[in-house]
Amino acid sequence: MGKGKKKAGPTGKKITLKLAKNSLRMTADGKRRLDLSNMGIATFPKCILKLADVDELDLSRNMLQKIPDYIEDFKNLRWLDFHSNRIETLPETIGQLENLFYLNLCNNKLTAASLPLQLGQLKKLRHLNLGMNGFECLPSTLAALKELQELGLFDNHLTGLPENIVNLPKLMKVNVKRNPFLQTRGEEDIDTIQRLECLYLVNEDSMCKPCLKKCKEERDKLNKLKCFAPSARKLTFQGLLTPNSTAQETQEEWR
């Protein structure tokens, strides 16, 4: 390789406008969905800007490393899927997708620093999947997602959950399976941490008094757990040479 030349990245498959148009589908509720999943795409195809009025966009199981700033042009998007790519950061303009209620970023290379503050502008977002990334902590911007109902955090490096995120008013399910929620206290604390592996949250108005009392007691126990320590062994997914190669057992979690 000559001096001063940069190593070329993956070229991937070239997507033409004709191919993209042939990938348009109608959903059961009459929405337009552009499905470009599992096509070996390495660069976001700019030609699909001519189809920016779609309601759903699926670019999962590709080789994308970057989401361009012009993602904001997809004003009608309600459903966006980027799972199983190589994305390391999100553009600030993603906050302009004001109709988005579903966002899947599972199985990428994201960290807390990868998520811009503008993510908190997604006021209609109800489902957010951040599983199988590199999160050791969660950014405060998630606390602005007041409509969020489900949050996927499985297979990360988390050692705790911020209270302002757990207490989101409409959050009903948080999946934190296979995170290093370690501690050095007694067996009772161990049991509490294990129950975090599948944590469900409901509004107080939906609970009877005995159940509400029990949940508050459990929350008090969680608030006392301050001595979490990160796992000495980082979680890796060496088998994921190609998307889905070793993740078949958990596909329903991160789709």
Care to give the gist of this entry?
This protein is low in regular secondary structure and 255 residues long. It contains 5 helices and 9 strands.
> What proportion of the residues is helical, as a percent range?
10-25%
Number of domains: 1
Strands of the largest sheet, in order across it? 1-2-3-4-5-6-7-8-9
Net shape: globular
Tally of separate helices: 5
What is the residue-averaged pLDDT? 80
Number of strands: 9
User: Which class best fits the helix and strand makeup?
Assistant: little secondary structure
pLDDT below 50 for ≥5 consecutive residues: which ranges?
A: 182-197, 226-249
The CATH topology comes to Leucine-rich repeat, LRR (right-handed beta-alpha superhelix)
Radius of gyration: 20 Å
CATH architecture: Alpha-Beta Horseshoe
What's the multimeric state? single chain
Organism: Acipenser oxyrinchus oxyrinchus
Keywords: Leucine-rich repeat, Repeat
InterPro entries: Leu-rich_rpt, Leu-rich_rpt_typical-subtyp, LRR_dom_sf, LRR_domain-containing
Protein name: Leucine-rich repeat-containing protein 18-like
